[in-house]
Write the C-alpha coordinates for this entry.
Amino acid sequence: MLIANETVYPTLAGVLENLSNPIAPHIIIISESADEQAYFEDNAFSHLAPLHEVIYSPQTQAFEVLEIIKQFEQIDFAWPALEADSAKKIRHYLRNERQIIGKIMTLKLIGFWHPRRGLLKQRRKALPVMEENRQ
Protein backbone atom coordinates (compact mmCIF):
# COMPACT_ATOMS: atom_id res chain seq x y z
CA MET A 1 0.00 0.00 0.00
CA LEU A 2 1.36 3.39 -1.01
CA ILE A 3 -0.03 6.57 0.57
CA ALA A 4 1.24 9.93 -0.62
CA ASN A 5 0.32 13.56 -0.20
CA GLU A 6 1.02 16.18 -2.86
CA THR A 7 4.56 16.83 -1.61
CA VAL A 8 5.71 13.34 -2.63
CA TYR A 9 3.75 12.83 -5.86
CA PRO A 10 6.93 12.85 -7.98
CA THR A 11 8.50 10.18 -5.76
CA LEU A 12 5.34 8.07 -5.86
CA ALA A 13 5.24 8.36 -9.66
CA GLY A 14 8.86 7.18 -9.81
CA VAL A 15 8.12 4.20 -7.56
CA LEU A 16 5.13 3.22 -9.70
CA GLU A 17 6.99 3.59 -12.98
CA ASN A 18 9.67 1.17 -11.75
CA LEU A 19 7.38 -1.23 -9.91
CA SER A 20 8.08 -4.87 -10.74
CA ASN A 21 5.85 -6.61 -8.19
CA PRO A 22 3.40 -9.11 -9.70
CA ILE A 23 0.63 -7.75 -7.44
CA ALA A 24 -0.42 -4.13 -7.71
CA PRO A 25 -0.32 -2.11 -4.50
CA HIS A 26 -3.19 -0.15 -3.07
CA ILE A 27 -2.50 3.50 -3.97
CA ILE A 28 -3.94 6.41 -1.98
CA ILE A 29 -3.20 9.97 -3.02
CA ILE A 30 -3.97 12.87 -0.72
CA SER A 31 -4.37 16.60 -1.25
CA GLU A 32 -6.43 19.57 -0.18
CA SER A 33 -7.45 20.31 -3.76
CA ALA A 34 -8.59 18.15 -6.68
CA ASP A 35 -6.40 20.26 -8.96
CA GLU A 36 -3.29 18.91 -7.25
CA GLN A 37 -4.32 15.35 -8.04
CA ALA A 38 -4.28 16.13 -11.77
CA TYR A 39 -0.63 15.07 -11.52
CA PHE A 40 -1.85 11.48 -11.92
CA GLU A 41 -4.43 11.96 -14.69
CA ASP A 42 -2.15 11.00 -17.58
CA ASN A 43 0.18 8.39 -16.18
CA ALA A 44 1.81 5.32 -17.61
CA PHE A 45 1.01 3.20 -14.56
CA SER A 46 -2.78 3.53 -14.34
CA HIS A 47 -3.04 -0.15 -15.28
CA LEU A 48 -1.50 -1.14 -11.94
CA ALA A 49 -4.36 -0.27 -9.67
CA PRO A 50 -7.02 2.38 -9.26
CA LEU A 51 -6.06 5.44 -7.30
CA HIS A 52 -8.01 6.16 -4.14
CA GLU A 53 -8.29 9.93 -3.93
CA VAL A 54 -8.55 11.76 -0.63
CA ILE A 55 -9.33 15.46 -0.98
CA TYR A 56 -9.67 16.96 2.47
CA SER A 57 -7.92 19.38 4.80
CA PRO A 58 -4.85 18.04 6.64
CA GLN A 59 -6.89 17.92 9.85
CA THR A 60 -9.23 15.23 8.45
CA GLN A 61 -6.97 13.41 5.99
CA ALA A 62 -5.95 10.67 8.45
CA PHE A 63 -9.58 9.83 9.22
CA GLU A 64 -10.45 9.64 5.51
CA VAL A 65 -7.41 7.49 4.70
CA LEU A 66 -8.21 5.13 7.57
CA GLU A 67 -11.74 4.68 6.23
CA ILE A 68 -10.24 3.54 2.91
CA ILE A 69 -7.60 1.32 4.52
CA LYS A 70 -10.18 -0.48 6.65
CA GLN A 71 -11.78 -1.73 3.42
CA PHE A 72 -8.58 -3.51 2.32
CA GLU A 73 -8.72 -7.18 3.14
CA GLN A 74 -4.96 -7.61 3.31
CA ILE A 75 -2.01 -5.23 3.54
CA ASP A 76 1.47 -6.70 3.09
CA PHE A 77 3.50 -3.50 3.23
CA ALA A 78 2.83 0.17 3.74
CA TRP A 79 4.48 3.42 2.74
CA PRO A 80 2.65 6.30 4.43
CA ALA A 81 4.28 9.49 3.10
CA LEU A 82 2.17 12.38 4.30
CA GLU A 83 1.86 15.09 6.94
CA ALA A 84 3.39 13.99 10.27
CA ASP A 85 0.24 13.94 12.43
CA SER A 86 -1.71 12.01 9.81
CA ALA A 87 1.15 9.57 9.25
CA LYS A 88 1.37 8.95 12.99
CA LYS A 89 -2.33 8.03 13.20
CA ILE A 90 -2.11 5.75 10.17
CA ARG A 91 1.06 4.03 11.42
CA HIS A 92 -0.61 3.49 14.79
CA TYR A 93 -3.57 1.79 13.11
CA LEU A 94 -1.37 -0.35 10.85
CA ARG A 95 0.87 -1.43 13.72
CA ASN A 96 -1.80 -2.03 16.37
CA GLU A 97 -4.87 -3.09 14.40
CA ARG A 98 -3.34 -4.77 11.35
CA GLN A 99 -0.07 -5.98 12.95
CA ILE A 100 2.12 -4.53 10.22
CA ILE A 101 5.60 -4.36 11.67
CA GLY A 102 7.98 -1.41 11.43
CA LYS A 103 10.29 -2.87 8.78
CA ILE A 104 7.37 -3.29 6.40
CA MET A 105 6.31 0.30 7.02
CA THR A 106 9.83 1.59 6.39
CA LEU A 107 10.04 3.50 3.17
CA LYS A 108 12.01 1.53 0.63
CA LEU A 109 12.70 4.66 -1.37
CA ILE A 110 14.18 7.19 0.99
CA GLY A 111 14.61 10.84 0.15
CA PHE A 112 15.31 13.83 2.32
CA TRP A 113 13.58 16.99 1.13
CA HIS A 114 14.56 20.44 2.31
CA PRO A 115 12.09 23.27 1.50
CA ARG A 116 14.80 25.63 0.24
CA ARG A 117 17.40 23.21 -1.09
CA GLY A 118 15.24 20.49 -2.66
CA LEU A 119 16.19 16.85 -2.61
CA LEU A 120 19.28 16.44 -0.45
CA LYS A 121 19.81 12.71 -0.53
CA GLN A 122 18.07 9.80 -2.13
CA ARG A 123 18.65 6.09 -1.68
CA ARG A 124 16.70 3.57 -3.74
CA LYS A 125 15.78 0.03 -2.78
CA ALA A 126 13.16 -2.24 -4.28
CA LEU A 127 9.74 -2.61 -2.72
CA PRO A 128 9.13 -6.06 -1.27
CA VAL A 129 8.04 -8.65 -3.83
CA MET A 130 4.73 -10.22 -2.93
CA GLU A 131 3.40 -13.66 -3.76
CA GLU A 132 0.98 -13.68 -6.67
CA ASN A 133 -1.99 -14.90 -4.65
CA ARG A 134 -1.76 -12.09 -2.12
CA GLN A 135 -2.69 -8.40 -2.26
About this structure: The chain has one domain: 2-124. The first helix runs from residue 9 to 17. Confidence is low (pLDDT under 50) at residues 106-135.
